[in-house]
Known about the structure:
Distance between the termini: 33 Å
CATH architecture of the largest domain: 3-Layer(aba) Sandwich
Shape: globular
Structural class: alpha/beta
Bound molecules: pyridoxal-5'-phosphate
Number of domains: 3
Number of helices: 32
CATH superfamily of the largest domain: Glycogen Phosphorylase B
CATH topology of the largest domain: Rossmann fold
Radius of gyration: 25 Å
Largest sheet: 10 strands, mixed
Number of strands: 21
Strand content: 5-15%
CATH class of the largest domain: Alpha Beta
Amino acid sequence: MEVEVKALVEVLPKRIQKLGELAYNLWWTWQPDAQALFYKMDNLLWGQLGHNPVKLLRALPKVTLNALAANPIFLAEYDRITAAFEVYMNSGTHAANAATWFSKHYDAAQWAKPVAYFSMEYGVFEVLPLYAGGLGVLAGDHLKESSDIGLPLVGVGFIYQYGYFKQRITEDGWQEADYPIYDFTALPITLVRKPDGSAVTVTARISGREVTMQAWKAQIGRVPLYLLDTNLPQNSEYDRALTQRLYVPDPDKRIDQEWLLGVGGVRLLRAMNIAPAVWHMNEGHPAFLTIERARELVSAGHDFDAACDIVRKDTVFTTHTPVPAGNDAFAFWQIERHLNGIWNDLGISRDEFFALADQQGSYGMTPLALRMSARSNGVSKLHGEVANDMWKWMYSDEARAAGSVVPTGGQSIHYITNGVHCPTWVPWRTKRHYTQYLGENWLENADDSAMWQKIYDMPNEVLWQLRKHYKRKLATFMLERARTKWLTHTVHPVQTIASGVMIEPLHLTIGFARRFPTYKRATLILRDVERLMRIINNASRPVQIIYAGKSHPHDEPGKLLIQQLYRQIKNADSAGRLVFIEDYDTNVARHLVMGVDVWLNTPRRPYEASGTSGMKASLNGALNFSVLDGWWPEAYDGTNGWKIGRDVYASEAEQDMVDAESLYSTLENEIVPLYYDQDAAGVPHGWLNRAKNAIATCAPAFSTRRMLKQYIQEMYAPLVK
Ligand SMILES: *Cc1c(COP(=O)(O)O)cnc(C)c1O
């Protein structure tokens, strides 16, 4: 048992000591019952401590712990959950004593070595501030599903002392960033140690100096996630700060970070004697891992080309960014300054080294990853097409003739559409209902469309009760956040109104929550403010819109969008029906996707690679209302949500105009009337039938269960010898 876990276990009464182990395994984050166990120990403290069980168990007074250890009701729950935890850890499945899907389909002996998954960010739970948005949440869901499905996998990433950032909105709508310093010893993670108790450390050379890293482990069910950390006394102040923040805009620091992730990650796995069978790069950020692996092979006696061939045989890459600026590319001279001399270690020239990552004159992490992988994929059907188009110059005959490095076999980019982890995104009451109508094993069969047809057995009245429950819960959530803020901060009253205190839970409620880059067009709905005001303030059929989302602290246009939106929200005309929830995180996301009726998404097609928040909403019976971008063209069938706009436009100006018109008219003519078409008992049957269509069609197809099976079958298994 790790030192930290042991220390926590020892302060607990014997009868409930397993809580210590439970706290340090993030399995509890997708087990509502396990969360409830912590919650019931002291619900106020649980909230105040940010849903952190390590802090909670340390903070509870001895008398409270002793009382719980003698409380038969608590103990019955405790016994049930710790038993389920043990079953899970031994079999890795939701169903007691059953084999996992993976163990039923693949030979354990052949899969003795794990898949190594590298990502710059991971969104596992709000307690671990390692993510900025959808890319991270997807990575978190990938790990959880790997654990559930029984795939041997290890994750590698960073732990950030300042996390991403905490968002605060000023009275004038300006986003300010707070950087709380996280105390790693208070998080549910443990330091990776050698048998003698000292920290495992590895180094990587940057600009001629050695930077030392240690690592923390977050246990995600059966999957370990290793998190690199440079905050060590042997490093300079500059190097200690390299793992302070996620997505630093300074390209010098960015190169350093990415080098540390790729090189440090490989060396860390070596130091722990983990020999991956497959290396998976989630986005281009970790692509330097291929250089480090080639370097290992060259120093073992292979020539560089042979080394690259070997690396390619077991490396896969997922690209996520159809926005050109989203793909990291650096100037050659800058790379040279940081990695100087690395080509000597590889036995090649400077030019050969740069050719490997050449992106029309700069050093591109995506071309490097594409050229060093056996297989690559985009994250939706449409994105697969866009990615192929974007990178086809790399595969062309001209590129080949010009001597540029072409990916092996000139392979084009496949696609595996993203999914969401059902146990994470379905709250406990809904889980209970789904269990009743879909059967005990519904989570094990989350990708089975035939099973989801049984959702139609759920009476509309039952579904409506459930929807209303979570609609009220969302309203209470906003109210309590506003109250806490009012109590603890200096806020203008209008900010309290803007944070959702005037929301009427039973009115039609639309959610829009995501990062605020300009391509997501968060303010598209403000194109005709008067028309919008008529829609939301219709006395007999009012509409409410709840916004949340962070803009990157250095993205000024994104922050201006938030401001524009916030000013409209504060405007008295909006009648408290437009709302902005500060500091979007996985907790806010859960409340929103469960509690809104419509999930709005207005990206500029085709810049949304996939999007996953709409999948979470559909899974909960909210109706997706979106531009036909990312995953939505694959899902939309005319009966399970609504589309905005069309596929092709002559210009961006036309696109904005047509999409806005489509947005308003669909709201006015279809969405609002359908919601308010309720029977004498207030049940909107037409709406609920549509909600069931959304659940039945989207839940199975856009589950990580379906997604991970595809990764295993199409990306990992073909590379495992
Ligand atoms: C799901 C999720 C996202 C992804 O949002 P998209 O609209 O799919 O881009 C971002 N942030 C958080 C906190 C999420 O839970």
